[in-house]
Backbone:
C-alpha cells in the first residue's frame, strides 16, 4: 500500500478502519500489525493526529532481523561470501561502465584518505548505475556489519591498487586487487 499510494517518510497512513476495509481483515489484526510496525520504528503514532511513516534509514531493522536470520555460523559465512561475490560483480560492471574521469576522481579521494571501505564501494555502486544491484549490496553490507560488530579497517594501499586496476580496465588485476583487499585465498578464482 505504501508503494501503491506513493507514500514517503512523514506521510500519514490510513486509519485503522480504512486499513481494515482495504485489507479485508479485522481491526484487531490491523491494530496488532501497526503496533509491531511501531515497535520496529517504521511508523509513529501522534495523539490526535494519526499514524505516520517514519524515516527509517538509520533504523536498526537489519540488526534486529539479523539476530533471527543469522543465528548459525553457516548463515554468517554465507553473508560474507555473498557480499564478496556481489562486490566482484560490481567491479565487473564498473569496468564496463566507468569513464576515466569518475575513476580518477575516486582515486583522488582514496589518495586523500577521504573514504572508508563502505563509502568507496558505495561510490562504485553509483558508477555502476544499477539500482537493484546497489540495493542488494546495501542490504548485504548491513547484514555483514551486524555479523562483524567491530569495524574492520582496510589498507588504503589495497584500495589504491584496486582503483588503479579499474582505471587500467584490467579485469584480472582488478579481481586480484579485490582478493588482496578482502584477504581472500586464490580459491576464489572460480568467482
Residues:
Amino acid at each position: 500500500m505504501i508503494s501503491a499510494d506513493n507514500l514517503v517518510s512523514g506521510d500519514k497512513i490510513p486509519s485503522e478502519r480504512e486499513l481494515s476495509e482495504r485489507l479485508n481483515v479485522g481491526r484487531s489484526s490491523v491494530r496488532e500489525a501497526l503496533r509491531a510496525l511501531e515497535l520496529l520504528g517504521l511508523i509513529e503514532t501522534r495523539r490526535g493526529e494519526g499514524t505516520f511513516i517514519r524515516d527509517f534509514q538509520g533504523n536498526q531493522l537489519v540488526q534486529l532481523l539479523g539476530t533471527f536470520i543469522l543465528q548459525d555460523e553457516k548463515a554468517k559465512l554465507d553473508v560474507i561470501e555473498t557480499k564478496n561475490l556481489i562486490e566482484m560483480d560490481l567491479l565487473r560492471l564498473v569496468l564496463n561502465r566507468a569513464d576515466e574521469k569518475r575513476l580518477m576522481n575516486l582515486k583522488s579521494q582514496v589518495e586523500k584518505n577521504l573514504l572508508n571501505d563502505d563509502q568507496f564501494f558505495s561510490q562504485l555502486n553509483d558508477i555502476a548505475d544499477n539500482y537493484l544491484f546497489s540495493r542488494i549490496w546495501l542490504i548485504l553490507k548491513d547484514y555483514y556489519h551486524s555479523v562483524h560488530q567491530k569495524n574492520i579497517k582496510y589498507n588504503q594501499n589495497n584500495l589504491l591498487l584496486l582503483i588503479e586496476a579499474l582505471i587500467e580496465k584490467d579485469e584480472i588485476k582488478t579481481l586480484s586487487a579485490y582478493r588482496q583487499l578482502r584477504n581472500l585465498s586464490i580459491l576464489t578464482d572460480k568467482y
Notes: Confidence is low (pLDDT under 50) at residues 187-191. The chain has two domains: 1-59, 61-182. The two ends are 39 Å apart (CA to CA). The first strand starts at residue 43 and ends at 46.
